[in-house]
């Protein structure tokens, strides 16, 4: 395969020289390229046949050491996985879980992405990440939805320990990105997820904000995008900009200024928030940064869009970081430690765009392949024909439909809508798991397949029902749901637990087992669960 690469590389360079000199005949080039594609197809077919028979031998040759482990997801991690997979490296990806946000990174909490090439009508952040993830899986990437807890770069191969496993790797790509900052006002201790949030796309559809006035803090693209998004649900949005101007792109500035549902407050900072009689956010205490004057603003919601902090603490002093905690890189993606590479917002302080993060993921993967080849460490895992086929649409991709008296079947395990919830609450003799979601909620997309696996483990002992808080807002309001995803677990009409955000599967299992008295499945050890109020922080970002 390496010989083939050299030949292709030489042919490519030759083609470039001819093209620049203007001496190459177009038709001759086309015929040559057609023959080359045919030859490459034949060679790939032969290689596929050989490697299927030798797959176990390759695993033995690796000695249980991965070619490359990618820590983190998002556009940087998924793109690195795509390129590493196409290079037959079979990358192992730790997508993350709660540290730094849900798998898929910051785009999982982004509304419309309008500047990513190839989507002229725009695409939501969660949709874009779903497509990237599927593409990475298509090319052989192995995904683990787990947090990496420790890394050891002091010995080779490197050791990476997650919440569920320990792996060794000859190279590592760091793509842990950055986490949304908080203001640090006193009210965050009591009003977080009770009106204060760092994720408009996750919590904006909540009934407590519907037809109410809310505020967004920040002057960049994140804040302006959230302000525009919130106008879909809220009566009016106040954008609080600390300085005299916004830092957002000109297109987003124009959109905000021209929007009748948004008022921009320049030279304004939020110093605290006050609750109303129900214990939810009622008003903000604002200060004019130019003259120091203070005033009150009555709002029911406060959303943050004020920048990010790099998720680099896990690496400690094993690699070089700058004073702000960003990874120091050279030659595109190389860190201070040979064999460890960086991609995305973990080192990018200037551009911080989805497209630049994806580009740096590509660079890191290509550099990893060269590093492994030069050091005689590369073990190739060739793609089979089956894996190279486009992913087909599954049953899970279909949109669920709310049930009614004709379609409801109590013997079924999974249900959707308020009719099913009412019937199950009164008639089910199983544990009842209710998951509240919203159409644009990125973390909900990651939680649904996790809960599917948990429910399947208990077969006929659990009923599961999903409630869309946009379609059934009165149900969500009655249940006290202030953000999505929120999971409530009942047994015999008693509410056992409320789990806000995305949790480990073991936490859901433990609640189920406490009701039915069954031992935990062997796949994960149960973790202790602390009591948590309905509006507890979900750690979505």
Helix count equals 14
Major β-sheet, in short? 5 strands, parallel
Shape: globular
Count of extended strands: 26
Strand order of the largest sheet: 6-3-2-10-21
Residue runs with pLDDT of under 50 for 5 or more positions: 1-56, 387-396, 520-541
Helical content band: 25-40%
* Average residue-wise pLDDT: 82
The assigned structural class equals alpha/beta
Radius of gyration: 26 Å
* Alpha-carbon distance between the two ends: 42 Å
Could you explain how this protein is built, in words?
It is a single chain. The chain is of the alpha/beta class. It contains 14 helices and 26 strands. Helix 4 runs parallel beside helix 10 (354-374) and helix 8 runs parallel beside helix 9 (250-258). 41% of the residues are buried. Mean pLDDT is 82; it is low at 1-56, 387-396 and 520-541.
Task: Walk me through the topology.
Layout (H helix, E strand, L loop, with lengths): L1 H20 L4 H28 L1 H8 L2 E2 L2 E3 L2 H13 L5 E3 L17 E2 L9 E2 H14 L3 E3 L3 E5 L5 E5 L3 E4 L2 E3 L3 E3 L7 H4 L4 E2 L2 H4 L9 E5 L3 H10 L5 E5 L9 H9 L3 E4 L2 E8 L5 E8 L5 E5 L2 E4 L3 E3 L29 E3 L11 H21 L39 E3 L1 H10 L3 E7 L4 H16 L4 E7 L4 H6 L7 E6 L2 E7 L4 H12 L25
Parallel strand pairs: 1-9, 2-3, 2-10, 3-6, 10-21, 12-19, 13-14, 13-19, 14-15, 22-24, 23-24
Antiparallel strand pairs: 4-5, 7-8, 8-9, 11-20, 16-17, 17-18, 23-25, 25-26
Helix pairs in contact: 4-5, 4-10, 8-9
């Amino acid at each position: 395969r390496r010989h083939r690469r050299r030949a292709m590389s030489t042919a490519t360079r030759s083609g470039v020289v001819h093209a620049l000199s203007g001496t190459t005949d177009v038709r001759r080039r086309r015929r040559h390229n057609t023959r080359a594609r045919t030859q490459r197809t034949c060679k790939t077919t032969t290689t596929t046949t050989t490697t299927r028979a030798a797959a176990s031998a390759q695993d033995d040759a690796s000695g249980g050491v991965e070619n490359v482990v990618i820590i983190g997801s998002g556009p940087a991690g998924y793109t690195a996985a795509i390129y590493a997979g196409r290079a037959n490296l079979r990358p192992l990806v730790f997508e993350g879980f709660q540290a730094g946000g849900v798998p898929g990174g910051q785009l999982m909490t982004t509304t419309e992405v309008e500047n990513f090439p190839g989507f002229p009508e725009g695409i939501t952040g969660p949709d874009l990440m779903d497509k990237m993830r599927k593409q990475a899986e298509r090319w052989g990437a192995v995904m683990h939805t787990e947090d990496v807890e420790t890394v050891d770069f002091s010995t080779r191969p490197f050791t990476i320990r997650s919440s569920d496993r320990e792996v060794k790797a000859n190279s590592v790509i760091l793509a842990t990105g950055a986490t949304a900052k908080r203001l640090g006002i006193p009210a965050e201790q009591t009003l977080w997820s009770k009106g204060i949030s760092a994720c408009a796309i996750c919590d904006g559809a909540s009934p407590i904000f519907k037809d109410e006035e809310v505020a967004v803090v920040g002057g960049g693209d994140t804040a302006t995008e959230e302000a525009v998004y919130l106008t879909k649900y809220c009566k009016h949005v106040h954008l609080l900009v600390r300085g005299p101007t916004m830092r957002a792109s000109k297109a987003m500035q124009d959109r905000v200024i021209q929007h009748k549902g948004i008022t921009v407050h320049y030279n304004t900072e939020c110093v605290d928030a006050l609750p109303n009689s129900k214990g939810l956010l009622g008003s903000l205490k604002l200060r004019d940064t130019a003259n120091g004057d203070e005033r009150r603003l009555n709002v029911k919601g406060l959303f943050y869009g004020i920048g990010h902090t790099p998720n680099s603490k896990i690496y400690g002093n094993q690699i070089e970081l700058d004073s702000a905690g960003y990874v120091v890189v050279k030659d595109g993606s190389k860190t201070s430690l040979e064999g460890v590479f960086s991609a995305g917002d973990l080192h990018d302080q200037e551009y911080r765009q989805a497209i630049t993060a994806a580009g740096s993921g590509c660079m890191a993967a290509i550099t990893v392949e060269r590093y492994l080849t030069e050091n005689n460490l590369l073990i190739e895992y060739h793609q089979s024909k089956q894996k190279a086929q486009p992913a087909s649409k599954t049953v899970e991709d279909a949109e669920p439909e709310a049930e009614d008296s004709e379609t409801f079947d109590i013997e079924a395990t999974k249900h959707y809508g308020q009719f099913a919830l009412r019937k199950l609450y009164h008639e089910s003799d199983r544990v009842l798991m209710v998951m509240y979601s919203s159409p644009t909620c990125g973390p909900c997309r990651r939680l649904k397949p996790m809960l599917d696996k948990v429910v399947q483990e208990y077969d006929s002992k659990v009923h599961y029902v999903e409630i869309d808080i946009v379609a059934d807002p009165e149900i969500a309001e009655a249940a006290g749901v202030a953000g999505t995803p929120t999971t409530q677990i009942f047994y015999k009409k008693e509410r056992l637990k409320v789990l806000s955000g995305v949790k480990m599967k073991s936490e859901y299992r433990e609640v189920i087992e406490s009701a039915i008295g069954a031992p935990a499945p062997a796949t994960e050890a149960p973790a202790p669960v602390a009591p948590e109020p309905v509006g507890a922080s979900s750690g979505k970002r």
